[in-house]
Amino acid sequence: MLDGLCIKTKMRGCNPSSRFSPAFTFGVGLLLCGASALAEGTPIPHGTLELLAENQWIAAGHKLDLGLRFQLEKGWHIYWVNPGDSGEPPRVEWQLPTGLTAEAIEWPTPRRLETSSIVDFGYEDAVMLIVPIHAEASLAAQQPARLGAEVRVLVCSREMCIPGEAQLSLTLPIKSQPPAPDARTLDARNIALFTATRKSLPRPVPGNWRFSVADANDSFVLTANLGRQITGHQITQAFFFPLAESQIENAAPQKMLPVAAGFRLTLRKSDQLLKPIQRLKGVLVLSADRAYLIEVPLSKSGAARSKAAAAVESTRYDP
Question: Quick one: which H or E segment has residue 55?
Answer without folding.
Answer: none
